[in-house]
Amino acid sequence: MIDIKKLTKQADDKRILRGIDLSIKKGETVGILGPNGAGKSTLLKVIATLIKPSGGQVTIGGYDLKKDQAEIKKLFGYLPHSSLLYDHYSPLENLVFFGNLYGVKNARARAIELVKEVGLSFFLNEPVKNFSRGMVQRIAIARAIVHEPELLLLDEPHTGLDQGAITILNTVILRMKEKGVTTLMVTHDFQQAAEICDRIIIVKNGKIADDFVLVDKKVSTLNKKYLYQVEGVS
Ligand SMILES: Nc1ncnc2c1ncn2[C@@H]1O[C@H](COP(=O)(O)OP(=O)(O)OP(=O)(O)O)[C@@H](O)[C@H]1O
Ligand SMILES: [Mg+2]
């Protein structure tokens, strides 16, 4: 699904990504962990065609990132730190708008179904500006999946969510996985990473420091591996 070779990103004289090689198969759920400033969000933004790499090769779903950006944009749903929602619009209006943008058939029915799925049907017609952070995040999740993407790019998706919303989000990710959707999730939440990811990648100083399968699915094992790679604690 994703094939990255020798990817670099430089901004001013700072080397943000310093040679990333990464191959991700269709249907994998991959957690991207690493300290603040490691380059995780930058890597996600490159894949989401929002910033141009300085060097290397990236193909997504068989398309070349340099040439086929329009095709790639249709493939993924992206959940960044900011919600991308229109504040003065309601969840229904936002989701119908984004649904139409992606050419979703019956966008209104899809919007209503998604708002129900994230547990906010009661607020279907309230402007998003009146929402709490967690409520906004719930609608932002719905926005990212409105067009049923093949690839999900999630940047710290659990931040600000209550326990109910965490369960909803994890259910969404797992259900999409059953349909063959590939997920890349940047997170600082080891508990969620251990629970839902098949594979963990640790990014440090713009490079991949580790890439492994968390066989026992235990957060304590993940903590140990992370501390060893990032802090040198064994
Ligand atoms: N446009 C830019 N110009 C210059 N430096 C940038 C730019 N964007 C990001 N950086 C720098 O690149 C580094 C990596 O940033 P990035 O946002 O990818 O980190 P991150 O791993 O997502 O961190 P966090 O866990 O804090 O979200 C940081 O040092 C940041 O200051
Ligand atoms: Mg980040």
UniProtKB/TrEMBL annotation:
Residues 2-230 form the ABC transporter domain. SUPFAM superfamilies: P-loop containing nucleoside triphosphate hydrolases (SSF52540). One of its GO terms (molecular function) is ATP hydrolysis activity. It comes from the Bacteria. Pfam families: ABC_tran (PF00005). InterPro entries: AAA+_ATPase, ABC_transporter-like_ATP-bd, ABC_transporter_ATP-binding, P-loop_NTPase. Gene3D superfamilies: P-loop containing nucleotide triphosphate hydrolases. Keywords: ATP-binding, Nucleotide-binding, Transport. Belongs to the ABC transporter superfamily. This is ABC transporter ATP-binding protein.
